[in-house]
Every structure is written in C-alpha cells, then in structure tokens.
Design brief:
The protein is α/β, with parallel strands linked by helices. It contains 12 helices and 14 strands. A 6-stranded parallel β-sheet has the order 4-3-5-6-7-13, with helices on both faces. Strands 9-8-10-11-12-14 form a 6-stranded mixed β-sheet, with helices on both faces. Helix 4 links the parallel strand 3 and strand 4. The longest helix is centred in the N-terminal third of the chain and has 14 residues. It starts with 13 loop residues before the first helix and ends in a 5-residue tail after the last strand.
Length: 332
C-alpha cells in the first residue's frame, strides 16, 4: 500500500493526490503495464476517504488511457505514457476528403499531450451504439458525428453531458450538447438564391438526395428554394439509369455520383456550363480542376476543425454554426 500517499493537510484535492501517486509509481518504474492497482476499498479504509474520491481518481486515469478496469478483478495499468492529459473519442460517419481536412485541422490545433482515437459508424445505428457503449468512461471527451441516424440521443445520453461535443449535424434532440454544426437548410437555400442568375438560364434543377446519408435540411432548403423562386425542381435518389438532358442543372452531394454524371454528360456530347449545369456539395482540390472547375456549396472543414480544437480547450458550452459559401466556377 506504500504506493499511494495522501496527506490530509495538503491543499491538493485527495483524488489528485491518488492520481499523482500512481503517476509517480509509473515514472519510478514501481508500476508497469499490466500491474494491478490497490483496490478502491483498501485505499478508502487506509486513508479514511470516500469511495467516490478513489473512484474519481481512477476514472480520470482511465479517461487518459493510463488505467483500465476489468470487471470482477479491479484496476490495472494499461499504459505507461502518463504525458497524455486528455484522451479523445472521435466518432465520424465516414472517411472522405472533407473529413480528412477536418481531422487534420483538428489535430494541428490541439495540444501534443492529447490522444485522439478515431472511429467510424458508416451510418449504421448498431455500430454507432456499440462504439459508444464500449467506450463509456474510457475517454475525457467524446466528439460525435451523429449524421442523420435516428434516436442517437438515447445512446449519447449515457455519456457525461459536459464531455460530449456534437459535430457537423445536430437536431432538436441534441440541443443540450456543445456543437459545431452546419445549417444545411439555410446554407442550400441561400446558396441557390445567390447563384440564381446563373441557374435560371437552365430549365430545371435536379437534386440527387439519398435519405440514408444526406441531411433532411438539404431537402428542405432545396424545396424551399424551388417554391419561392418558382423554379422547376426534381428530386431523384439515383443517377444510375438517368440520361442527362440539355437545360438541366444537377445538385450533387457526393463525389461518386458527380463523376458518374460527368461521364454520362460526355457520352451525350453535352457541354458542362453551357448545355447543362452542375453544383456539387463540399469543396475539394479536385473540384477546382475537373471540367475547368465545379461550382460548389461548401462549409469550411478546416475552420470547423480549428473551432472544435478551440472549444475543447475552453470547455465552454457553445453551439457554433460553421460558415458556408457558394463557390462559382465553370460548371454553372
């Protein structure tokens, strides 16, 4: 029991003294990976502290990845890297070039002693739930991209409220959590209005909307624009069997279908930006160069990563709407 030292008259909180004792034990090589730590009850009895005090110390070490708990056995040293001050759980829907920009920007703007573990749910609610349930209590912060999955609050509420950050998409069920998000309905409506002088030289606007992946706000913004501008609009779930026609403008949220429709347009002998228009969602380097440049509606994912890092540092309870813009290029 000489491993733990708690001084009653010390100004430092008792749980912090337990943390410091274990950190010192690791530094002095008294504790090594796999070693069992003193039980909560043994520390509680020897130093006349509450069970919650000891549990708080072990929970902090667990959230930093230094300690792990094994049901029915106790607490063990999981890592000897005590320099990790925070351990962050980052749950994305999928990996693409935009998420890579966000992720890289976030990593560039956080402290070196923060460890980030990234996971993906791929729009699968069961995977989403399991990843969160399996990691409750193992991280100091949980950054979650719920996408358009239903009933995510039932899962997220199992986590400490003040440790949760919602990213990219939020909804009315998640308003109690800190968030950096896109306002998809407003963004698509405003961007289409901004580009209307170019859009109106065509005859109709076709929106590829796949409900399992795309935010409902996109659809609301699109429908609102078509109604208020009195411009013909069509919603389709696939381009697989579609033959492009002169006078159409395509609004395309994903890269796969963007490439598919460009290929089909070429096959029909039509000219992009003259016979037919394209507006893509989320800007990238490839959209700057393909077909002389593809017009995009896009948020700034690098800025989103920077703001996320700032929010993590400050721990302020904020809901930040990330800015969005229409980037007009040759395709319109």
């Amino acid at each position: 029991m000489g491993l733990i030292n708690i001084e009653q008259d010390l100004a430092e909180p008792k749980y912090k003294q337990i943390v410091s004792s274990i950190e010192k034990g690791v530094l002095d090589r008294v504790l090594k990976k796999g070693d069992r730590l003193p039980s909560i009850n043994s520390i509680r009895k020897k130093f006349s502290v509450s069970r919650d005090t000891v549990l708080l110390a072990y929970s902090e070490l667990k959230a930093r990845g230094i300690v792990q708990s094994i049901s029915g056995k106790g607490y063990y040293v999981k890592s000897e890297n005590i320099d990790t001050v925070q351990k962050v759980f980052l749950l994305f829907d999928e990996l693409n070039v935009f998420k890579e920009d966000l992720y890289s920007s976030f990593l560039e703007n956080i402290e070196d002693n923060i460890q980030v573990d990234i996971f993906f749910h791929h729009f699968n609610h069961d995977v989403f739930s399991k990843l969160i349930y399996d990691n409750i209590g193992s991280y100091s912060s949980y950054i979650i991209m719920p996408a358009n999955l239903k009933n995510t609050r039932d899962v997220i509420e199992k986590l400490p409220n003040d440790k949760v950050y919602i990213l990219d998409q939020t909804n009315e069920d998640l308003l109690e959590y800190k968030a950096i998000y896109q306002n998809f309905e407003k963004d698509i409506f405003n961007s289409l209005n901004k580009g209307f002088n170019l859009i109106k030289k065509y005859q109709s606007l076709v929106f590829l909307f796949q409900e399992e992946k795309q935010p409902q706000g996109m659809l609301r913004g699109f429908n609102k624009f078509c109604k208020e501008s009195n411009f013909p609009g069509e919603v389709t779930i696939t381009f697989d069997d579609r033959v492009p026609k002169r006078g159409e403008v395509y609004l395309i949220p994903d890269n796969r279908n963007l490439i598919l429709i460009i290929k089909k347009i070429r096959e029909e002998g039509l000219t992009i930006g003259k016979d037919i228009g394209i507006i893509a969602y989320n800007d990238s380097l490839i959209k700057e160069v393909v077909e002389g440049g593809i017009t995009t509606i896009s948020t700034d994912f690098k800025e989103m990563g920077e703001k996320l890092a700032e929010m993590l540092k400050s721990s302020e309870h904020l809901m930040i709407e990330n800015r969005n813009e229409l980037i007009i290029r040759n395709s319109l």
